[in-house]
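thread: overnight batch results

M.L. [08:02]
morning all. the overnight job finished for the chain we discussed friday. pasting input first so we're all looking at the same thing
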Amino acid sequence: MSVHKNVKRVTTHTLQEMKNKGEKISMLTGYDFSMARIIDTAGIDVILVGDSASNVMAGHETTLPITLDQMIYHASSVVRAVQRALVVVDMPFGSYQGNSKEALSNAIRIMKESGGHAVKMEGGQEVLESIQRILTAGIPVMGHLGLTPQSIYKFGTYVVRAKEKGEADRLIEDAKALEEAGCFALVLEKIPADLATLVAKAVHIPIIGIGAGGGVDGQVLVVHDMLGINNEFNPRFLRKYHNLYQEMLGAFQNYIEDVKSGSFPNEDEQY
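M.L. [08:03]
and the structure it wrote out:
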């Protein structure tokens, strides 16, 4: 799909300018062509091809099972739909931890095969070497601190992170280290609002929150959650903009009824 002349693409530079001006950044997840096209048309700044696809698209309990190939498949579907938004692709669990050479080749695969614009990686100092190596290849990296779902088995729970001073101090250190390494932005997930505000002021790069209060530079939600498709998920930080679960259920039930009763298709709906 060609980019229209009048559509100005959002870049990492655009996001930095937005933070400098105090303009909030909007970000949603996207996993497929049809949905991404609507999200992009709405005027979103960033589409995150999240490893949350593991949960909402594939039905896994955690984000751990999704593979690099599957992430590339989702990302390329999204990229084909997008004309304006910056497309950031999650590097899945196991694709960058521990081995920075492997991390670089996996990041290169994501960029080459999906056409995405940047990658996102979870963790602080412990993944710094991988982040630095990927950045040397000219691939933009978004960091992710706080609740890092790929480490769920280490945490053992999805509760709010960094409530104790030790963990909070480490989070601020990690944020500064990621900025220094060259990350263009950071996601902060499920941490106290005061701490998130502190981080957003302590670093110059944009901070995007999810369950991190309003004192940050932007917000991200999982699209299936904010549309209310994901019926069972109701954390405090989630605002549901629709109850698509009920609407879709109703539509499917009406269709079934019409087929069974013979009222679909009617005379106008056939050749």
